[in-house]
TrEMBL record:
One of its GO terms (cellular component) is plasma membrane. Transmembrane segments: none annotated. Keywords: Bacterial flagellum biogenesis, Bacterial flagellum protein export, Cell membrane, Chemotaxis, Coiled coil, Membrane, Protein transport, Transport. This is Flagellar FliJ protein. Pfam families: FliJ.
Length: 149
């Protein structure tokens, strides 16, 4: 019998490459998410430190002009934190969308791999039957020859 060939081998290869590419993209987005989370956390830390400094200086007495500067700085930090938090949420949404793509690609690949496994099993069964038929034919031919002699 001829060697086993899976007719969808090229499709399977393409699906595996696509799945690997999607996993790589997902990993990149997750790295961006972690970096953005660290940035937001550092902005919050800076905001808390600036707010503590403002309260401390207010307790000791602070001219009105410096109070306005501190308050303006705090508002600017709040806007920056809001913007970076919004960007973080967008990155998280992208990561989730990419994760869904990876899961879908994995399911597609798994389906083709299961089909390939089934075809290999069928091929092996057919090969075994063919070999059994050959052996039976050989044995019966040998018996006929032995009986003829």
């Amino acid at each position: 019998m001829k060697k086993f060939q899976f007719s969808l081998e090229k499709v399977l290869s393409y699906k595996q490459q696509r799945q690997d590419a999607l996993r790589s993209e997902h990993a990149e987005i997750l790295a961006q998410v972690h970096a953005q989370e660290a940035l937001v956390e550092s902005l919050w830390k800076r905001y808390r430190e600036y707010g503590a400094e403002y309260r401390e200086r207010c307790e000791r007495g602070l001219p009105m002009t410096e109070v306005l500067v501190y308050q303006s700085g705090l508002r600017a930090m709040e806007r920056e934190i809001q913007g970076e938090t919004k960007q973080l949420e967008q990155l998280r949404e992208r990561a989730e969308a990419k994760r869904k793509e990876v899961v879908e690609a994995k399911q597609e690949t798994a389906a083709i791999e299961k089909l390939k496994e089934k075809k290999v099993r069928d091929y092996k069964k057919a090969l075994e039957k063919s070999e059994e038929a050959f052996i039976e034919e050989f044995v019966s031919t040998s018996r006929v020859r032995a009986a003829a002699n």
